[in-house]
Design a protein that fits this description.
The complex is a heterodimer of chains A (427) and B (106). Chain A is of the alpha/beta class and 427 residues long. Chain A folds into 2 domains: 196 residues, 3-Layer(bba) Sandwich (FAD/NAD(P)-binding domain); 140 residues, FAD/NAD(P)-binding domain, CATH 3.50.50.60. Helix content of chain A is 29%, strand content 26%. A 5-stranded parallel sheet of chain A has the order 5-2-1-9-20. In chain A, strands 13-12-11-17 form a 4-stranded parallel sheet. In chain A, strands 6-7-8 form a 3-stranded antiparallel sheet, with no helix packed on it. The radius of gyration of chain A is 23 Å and the shape is globular. With 106 residues, chain B is an all-alpha fold. Chain B has one domain: Orthogonal Bundle (Cytochrome Bc1 Complex, Chain D, domain 2). Helices cover 61% and strands 0% of the residues of chain B. Classes of the chains: A alpha/beta (427), B mainly alpha (106). Chains A and B meet through helix 1, helix 10, strand 22, strand 23 and strand 24 of A and helix 1, helix 2, helix 3 and helix 4 of B. The complex binds flavin-adenine dinucleotide. Flavin-adenine dinucleotide binds next to helix 2, helix 3, helix 6, helix 10 and strand 22 of chain A.
Chain lengths: 427, 106
């Protein structure tokens, strides 16, 4: 069958765009007797901001929504690599919470949740205040398991940043790369599975290579992986060969024998193969659910088991956990996934609290990565709620050998997606 | 040449649309609004057209035929093919109804 691109198709179709007819949404079943049901959302990131926004929006004021998030400005991890590569400035990846309060009546509280008392259904904040809930939503993201890398620690992370929660750490990485000596060495240690953003360390490697190719072309990048293979590996390695030949040395764990020690004072990374002296480094340790999940008593090991159709935790039906903190197998830990799961959570909670219609749970994900200027790749899938896990319905991935126009369009899609998802979280 | 072949393919798409219409599948606004949440992670709801096209304020029939063209893989984008691939006629009609209702703000 002959394939058309959308421009050819639209031309053939004639004028596709008609004047938009305004019609009023007709939300049914919002019961409001007595006090409003109350939802507390902890964490205003990809999962939490979206969940708060959709619960408030779709319940049309019938549910009181309180969002607890310590930072006043959320800097996305997504596109933080593009900031490192010089494709974005730092301000452009920061987003505030005003619209969630002003447009949707969400009560945004800038504080840390310090503990959860699930038997009394209340949350205590760092300030000491306590807030009761009918439903609690946790999307606290990740915390680092510092001791997963021998020698690594909270103290070491300023000299050897992970930069895996965006923020200052990523700015430090940028600064370190910019001040590397000519022909210096950058060492990257990616984390073991499961972790936030599977293609992330390799997109970061690409973006740092892009920066160095322009500003310090004799510099080297050594990637000491803790895994034998990684996401979109063939696509990344093909791209590294085409754009950065000779600059990046990816070394598998069976070759280097494991990370034996990292020393932030001497900037040395010790393996069986060799001790690597870094001019700048990025050490990304193993990860676990944000600490509040364990404090709420809903974790099993490092992460939180949930029911696929509602993301309610297996431990407590009134606590829903989504995003990176949850075990959402087969979905990867991504911002897109967290945003998608938030809609499933909002649908389930709105339905339960306002006695309104609950629709079928459906999920989707796409992770774009930028290898070099206008050379974008993507991997994605659609999912449905199975009995025990979230099942893949269909999936796709970019291919080696795609033409330049396709790779450029893929990169441009990611820009469109960034505008879309951040509006879907914060507008 | 490409164009002639394309027009032929279009005729096939259009006849599929006619079938769907004559089957009388009706969209449900509220369902469309729910399903649309999946779309707006990528597509702007205020008609921003940057990297990913704006899809608000379309005539329903055109919207339905375009989604069906991704579903049948006649239109190429793999992300959209995956999204459209699992939509049934009722879901597509509901999405068309919902997105047609969104005002074009710019
Ligand atoms: C370098 C990099 C690149 C990435 N690129 C992409 C990409 O291109 N596409 C993509 O889809 N994903 C990407 N990701 C992944 C994405 O950032 C995460 O998967 C996503 O942010 C997860 O959302 P979340 O809601 O679980 O956590 P977060 O977005 O991290 O939100 C958690 C929030 O909870 C708050 N919080 C934590 N504990 C508490 C507490 N006790 N009280 C109150 N608030 C609390 C935090 O302050 C934070 O704001 C990338 C990640 C990295 C590191």
């Amino acid at each position: 069958m002959t394939k058309l691109n959308r421009r050819q198709f639209s031309t053939l179709l004639g004028s596709t765009v008609a004047a938009g007819a305004l019609s009023m949404p007709n939300i049914t079943g919002a019961a409001s007797h007595g006090a409003k049901p109350k939802v507390v959302v902890i964490g205003g990131g990809a999962g939490g901001a979206t969940a708060a926004r959709y619960i408030a929006k779709d319940s049309k004021g019938a549910v009181e929504v309180i969002l607890i998030e310590p930072t006043k400005r959320y800097y996305t991890c997504f596109f933080s690599n593009l900031y490192l590569g010089g494709f974005r400035d730092y301000d452009s990846i920061g987003h505030g919470y005003d619209a969630l309060a002003n447009n949707h009546g969400i009560n945004v509280v800038h504080d840390w949740a310090a503990s959860v008392d699930s038997s009394n259904k209340s949350v205590t904040l760092a300030s000491g205040a306590s807030i009761s809930y009918d439903k609690l939503v946790l999307s606290p993201g990740i915390d680092m398991k510092y001791d997963s890398v021998p020698g690594y620690s909270v103290e070491a992370q300023t000299k050897m940043p992970h930069g895996w929660k965006s923020g200052t750490q990523v700015q430090i990485i940028k600064h370190r790369i910019a001040s590397m000596r000519e022909g210096g060495t950058f060492v990257m240690v990616p984390p073991p599975n499961p972790f936030r953003c599977p293609p992330g360390p390799y997109e970061r490697t690409s973006m740092i290579a892009h920066y160095l190719t322009k500003h310090n072309p004799t510099a080297k990048i050594i990637v000491l992986d803790t895994k034998p293979k990684f996401s979109k590996q063939g696509l990344f390695q093909d791209g590294w060969e085409r754009h950065y030949a000779g600059m990046i040395d990816w070394i598998a764990p069976d070759v280097h024998g494991g990370i034996k020690n990292v020393n932030a004072a001497t900037m040395e990374i010790e393996t069986d193969l060799d001790t690597f002296k870094a001019d700048a480094a990025c050490i990304i340790p193993a990860q676990k659910a944000g600490a509040i999940a364990a404090l709420a008593g809903v974790t099993d090991g490092d992460w939180v088991p949930v029911m696929p159709a509602s993301m309610a935790t297996k431990a407590d039906p009134n606590i829903h956990v989504l995003g990176d903190a949850s075990i959402a197998k087969s979905m990867p830990k991504s911002g897109f996934s967290a945003n998608s799961q938030a809609k499933v959570v909002a649908n389930a909670i709105r339905g339960e609290l306002t006695d309104s219609k609950v629709f079928d749970a459906r999920f989707a994900n796409t992770c774009w990565s930028l290898i070099s200027e206008n050379d974008g790749i993507k991997v994605g899938a659609s999912y449905k709620a199975g009995a025990e896990k979230i099942d893949v319905v269909d999936k796709f991935i970019s291919k080696n050998g795609e033409d330049e126009a396709t790779r450029k369009a893929t990169y441009e899609e990611s820009e469109g997606w960034y505008a879309g998802i951040t509006a879907d979280m914060f507008s | 040449m490409v164009r002639a072949v394309a027009i032929l393919s279009l005729a096939v798409v259009m006849s599929e649309v006619t079938c769907a219409n004559s089957a009388g599948v009706k969209g449900d606004f509220e369902y469309g609004q729910y399903l649309a949440a999946e779309c707006v992670t990528c597509h702007s709801t205020v008609g921003l057209d940057k990297g990913i096209p704006a899809i608000i304020g379309w005539e329903e029939a055109s919207f339905i035929s375009v989604i069906n063209a991704y579903k049948s893989k006649e239109l190429e984008n793999p992300a959209m093919q995956t999204i459209a691939g699992r939509l049934d006629d009722e879901q597509i009609a509901s999405l068309a109804l919902y997105f047609a209702s969104l005002p074009e703000e710019n």
